Amino acid sequence: MSLLKVRDLSVAARGRNLVDSVSFTLDAGERLGIIGESGSGKSLTATAIIGLLPPGLSATGSVLLDGHEVIGAREGELTALRGAVAATVFQDPLTALDPLMRVGRQIGEVWERTERRAGRPHGKGDTRAAVFSLMDEVSLPEPERIAGAFPHEISGGQRQRVAIAMALACRPKLLIADEPTTALDVTTQKETLALLARLVADHGMTLLFISHDLPVVAGIVDRVVVMRTGVVVEEGPVRQVFATPTHAYTRELLVAAERFDRALGAA
Ligand SMILES: Nc1ncnc2c1ncn2[C@@H]1O[C@H](COP(=O)(O)OP(=O)(O)OP(=O)(O)O)[C@@H](O)[C@H]1O
In this protein, which residues make up the domain named ABC transporter (predicted)? Predict the structure, then answer.
């Protein structure tokens, strides 16, 4: 069964479609990438899937997440789906973190909520052990120091690992990662990608990975959807789309990425 079924999803602002009749499915255990240049509608598609569109935007069509319709659902139903079914990691980890709360507590709160939902009783010691275990899973060093730190007291890469640990604490079926490495330097990018790939494999999670960066997407997904100006222009297995793109826009993206790689190589 498909874990995610998106049918004719459109997102509009003041009568203008920013996402236009997008359809794709994602089976359990699959890893799908959405690629496209800035402004092509990738993030709005992702936020519509979890029912978190900014005010002023409205979605039509159908998004079936684990069999539940998201479009038109009440906030209470959406809250139940978020976390339990789908968790998200965004480009800027600061959006996920409370600046005034120590990061260990933030991870702990998500873990406790997950346990409460599942009806599993737990004590303070359990939370502490779970937080350290989650921090270990995302390879955060010096767990005592980092758990006791505020978000601004750790590095950008460490903040993203904290955000990933919080997503993981939900034990989601679907992980939505929206440009999760874009704000990081190249080395940290590679480490974070490798971490995400390992966690998705270890936990058998389904992955929706959004990026404008083709080599990044190619390294982590099986299938790819190419978006341009709110519309899906091409879809297929990642190797096939990259080796023999059928749409001129995909070819342009590939040429631009190669040119960028060559420029980096020459630098
Ligand atoms: N809250 C909003 N109100 C009005 N227009 C918006 C809003 N958010 C996004 N848009 C517009 O919708 C279009 C799609 O935006 P979206 O953020 O989905 O693109 P994207 O492909 O994710 O780009 P990026 O990689 O830069 O994040 C853009 O033209 C953007 O300007």
Answer: 4-254
